[in-house]
Hints:
CATH topology of one domain: Rossmann fold
CATH class of one domain: Alpha Beta
CATH superfamily of one domain: von Willebrand factor, type A domain
Shape: globular
Amino acid sequence: MGNFAKFKSDQSGGVAIMFAVSTPVAALIVFGSLDYSRMVAARAGLQGATDSAALALAMNTTPTTTQSMIETQAANAIAAAAGTGSPTVVSVSLSNKNTQVCLSTSQPVLSIASKIVGIGSTSVQATSCATTNSSVSGAFEIALALDNTGSMSRSAGGKSKLDSAKTAALALIDQLSNSGASVQFSVVPFSTSVNVGASNLGASWLDTTGRSSIHWQNVQRPAGASWLPGSRFDLFSQMNTTWAGCVEERPDPFLTTDVAATATQPDSLFVPYLWPDEGDVEGSGSAFLPGMNVVGNGRGAKLYSSSYWDFGGASNNYLYDFGGVCAASAADPYEAADVTDPLSRGSGATKLCKYKGATGVSSRVSSDGPNKGCMDNPLLPLTGSKTDLNAKINSMDAGGTTNLLPGFMWAWRTISPNGPFTGASTPKPYGTAGNSKIIVFMTDGFNNWSSNSGYAYKSEYNALGYYVNNRLSAYGGVVFPPPTGSPTYDGPTNSNNWRMQMDSALLAACANAKNAGVTIYTVGFSVPSDPIDTEGLQLLSKCASGADHAYVAQDSASIVSAFSNIGSSLSKLRLVR
């Protein structure tokens, strides 16, 4: 009852809870606590959506905007910002010569108590004011998610796309740092994955004990095995190599949310990135091999089962499949489990024994090995140090392919109060008065996940695993239906639906961030000689907080201009209450 009473009387953050009380206080004591967690979540969600809507309204007001116009715009803005639920506008007002908008909203909340004891209606309310008056003080937490893929090395007219992006980002930092506002930035270089920093080894938000459901997804841990590692970190240690600092994206329901990582929810923890050693192969096109025969493959003896088709196609083969503590025997638990694995089928891909005591394994991200595909440049958490920001941006280098979701999610996490980053520049809570959370998301491409039809796992490995791991199977909604119909993209990920699922997951993440009160700007660096396709540009536009928040740059000059325009908007636009 203490928490309930405290919540009911809380008037901070512009949020109030109203009850049409029609039952005795005694009934509230019994049933009130049942609604507490639901109302806390609803209150936070509505405040974030109201902040986002107020910012959008302030951005689009003009000296000729009328009260009738702002009321219509407010209804549309809160509906778009909320995404789900049914918030309504209580009031909206213009002041300071139409440079300030104040918005109050309300949303009903299902109350168990009201159904049981007739408390009456229950709702949460939120209030937010935003201004475009540059004389009003404010604070910004800005995440720069910057594409560092290999295509960024190509020309943008006069210099490379990456050098152009560096110039634009550095200019934006200078522009806003000199605006008089309190500004902090984070920098998130991304390609196939995101590097959170090897210095975080042992952090509580990492899955250091192998408890996440995706931790051992591509290996077998058979009963009777002589050695079973505690985590992937043990595999790095046994191979006498180092973890480069990349992580894999969390499985649903955490894939597109910023829910805090906690040990009580193992799937909320971040699993260290490790591209598994792929099975030794004889080369594609060979026939079924004799049952349990030992054959030579240039790397020593290799044991095959009669059910194994030597499909070839492995793209990251860095261990001998009978090395370590593996035995060349059908009775070996590791071998028996690998033979019966429906994907490996005796290829050696799932055998943990080969990792123990392995030597000569590269830790480089550009070589075959466990870190292959890892982004080599770690992100920079939120900071106000221009020295650190400039150094990070200038250190960026091009390499890898485009995986937009990790880049966006880690940009969001660097400004999220839910962590994992803490310290002197810990992000402020959502709804903090006068504080705006911004993501600037820049890419020169669209989602890419290379297939590998000759290999049983059907794809290259990245921060989402293999196709067959199906970490995106819940995101099959048709984002851009073709003119001839709307095929279904739900279900197992494959070479036909991977992009639709990746795009859908990104849009879910964008919607969740906007619902939390984050303002999103996107910049598509679409050079005519190396353009982003129509679907890719539409994706960025849908992700942004509005059409006026989505920029397209076609050369070095226009990307600098796009970042400058974003800076001009932010130096004037801010939350004030």
